């Protein structure tokens, strides 16, 4: 299922083909930038 990740603290916005990969990318970004928060969106709903 396609998903989108978006960081509340920088310009990161990425659309990915599956939510598992999107979740992994979000966790990697938050681990690298500990003061950033990434939101995961189900592209079918928003």
Structure description:
By secondary structure, the protein is of the alpha+beta class. It contains 1 helix and 3 strands. The chain starts with a strand and ends with a strand. It comes from Natronomonas moolapensis (strain DSM 18674 / CECT 7526 / JCM 14361 / 8.8.11). This is Small CPxCG-related zinc finger protein.
* Fraction of residues in helix: 25-40%
Written as H for each helix and E for each strand, in order along the chain, the element string is EEHE
Give the C-alpha Rg.
10 Å
Number of domains: 1
Largest sheet: 3 strands, antiparallel
Large-scale geometry: globular
Poorly predicted runs of 5 or more residues: none
| Major sheet: arrangement of strands | 2-1-3
- What class, by secondary structure content? alpha+beta
Write down the overall mean pLDDT.
Answer: 92
Distance between the termini: 13 Å
Organism: Natronomonas moolapensis (strain DSM 18674 / CECT 7526 / JCM 14361 / 8.8.11)
Protein name: Small CPxCG-related zinc finger protein
Q: What attributes does this structure have?
A:
3-stranded antiparallel beta sheet; alpha+beta; globular; about 45 residues; about 30% strand
């Amino acid at each position: 299922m396609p998903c989108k990740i978006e960081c509340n603290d920088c310009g990161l916005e990425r659309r990915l083909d599956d939510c598992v990969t999107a979740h992994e990318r979000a966790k990697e970004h938050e681990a690298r930038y500990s003061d950033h928060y990434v939101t995961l969106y189900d592209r079918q709903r928003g």
